Amino acid sequence: MSAIALDRRSQTRLSCDVLVVGGGAAGVAAAATAARHGLSVVLVERHGFCGGGAVAGHSGTVCGLYEASDNLRNRPVQAVWGFAGEFVDALEARGGLADPVRYGKTFTRVHDPIVWRETADAFLADAGVQVIYHAVATRVLVEGDEAIEGAEVWTKQGPVQIRAGMTIDASGDADLVAMAGMPSFVGDNGRVQNPTMIFRLMGVDVAAFRAAYGEDTIMPAAVSEMIVAANGSGDYTLPRAKIWLFPTTRPGELLCNCTRIIGADGRELNPLLWRDFAEAEIEGRRQAREYARFFRDRLRGCENAFVNDMAVQVGVRQTRQIEGRAKLMNADVVGGRKFADGIARSPWPIELHSGTRPKVEWLLDDVYEIPFGCFVPVKGQKIMASGRCLSAEHEAVASARVTAQCFSYGHAIGHATVVCLRDGVAPAELPGADLRMMLNRDGARLDG
Question: Does residue 97 lie within any of the structural domains?
Answer without folding.
Answer: yes
